[in-house]
Design a protein that fits this description.
The protein is mostly helical. About 55% of the residues lie in helices and about 5% in strands. It binds adenosine-5'-triphosphate and L-tryptophanamide.
Length: about 325
Amino acid sequence: MKNQRILSGIQPSGNLHIGNYLGAIKQFVELQNEYEAFYCIVDEHAITVPQDPKELHKNTLDLAMIYLAAGIDPKKSVIFVQSHVPAHTELGWILNTMTPLGELERMTQFKDKSERHAREGVYAGLFNYPTLMAADILLYHAQKVPVGEDQLQHIELTRSLAERFNNRFGNTFTIPEPLIREYSGRIMGLDDPSKKMSKSAGNSANYIALLDSPDEIRRKIKIAVTDSGKEVTFDEQEKPAVSNLMRIMSAFRDCAPKEVEMRYEGKGYAEFKDDLAELLVEKLTPLQEKYRILSENQDEVLLILAKGAMHARAVADKTLAKAKEKIGFVPINAIT
Ligand code: ATP
Ligand code: LTN
């Protein structure tokens, strides 16, 4: 019996890359054997920046297929779409009323994204994004939240919102903890190791997308920036670019970066990069093949999402009802 819960979410904003995979999805697959797992496709978060409706629709189904193709098993985990479970926005609203503006203003993701989207306009949803994320987590009493390092600040906010609610209204929410992998929690851009690999990067050489073709993978690894010198040594300060590539290799091989260093002692960047490209091709090809099969069976994917939504609703509605009662909202059965 799995007695601890985890929940995590990814935005269906397209172009999922190996940073998302190593920081989040790979953990999702591993953790589903130990935990009762809820994996959400956070479409309501995606619309905090402008989205083309057709693209959003496609990206949502694509992300479901990537979850499945990566190895998330609907028999072990609940896969669902955030907008299929209305309790998320409802609890998000309640939490908004308890979140000081100053705490939202400090969020670095808001600062980054509001700069990036300044031209199209910055809307209230982007600012309130973290309270909806807190609702995602708290509705399921998740003890652990597997994410990349960039989400740490949001989880800290979630913890303080849960504590604030519990102190004010009595014990209601579980206080969650982040689960971040030491070496793969923050994969950096292949074109610039000072910034995280990002699907919204303007330059596609910044990332390896999970659906990149073998030739595209080889080309991107070939042009990935390296550091001066020629030794393949793991030194984040002196060799940030090579160390990032070594972290990618070590994460895909499930070993420590120092083991990669030992393996390439006396060998140069070229051999290391060739091996890395082939490793990525070897690891991503089966995922791409499963994705292709699923994309020909979209009804099956829709059924998995429908079942996931029913399961998620049953859990989320119960928590929401408890929170509403604690606040003093009159429950519907008291009126009839
Ligand atoms: P991006 O910045 O790539 O546009 P995002 O971080 O805003 O995307 P998501 O795609 O929802 O949003 O992120 C999904 C998961 O992937 C999160 O857990 C996030 O922490 C993780 N993640 C994103 N980028 C990286 C990275 N470069 N390295 C490790 N994990 C990452
Ligand atoms: N904010 C996250 C996506 C996200 C999430 C969540 C992650 C939304 N809700 C709940 C973990 C748990 C991001 O931008 N990557």
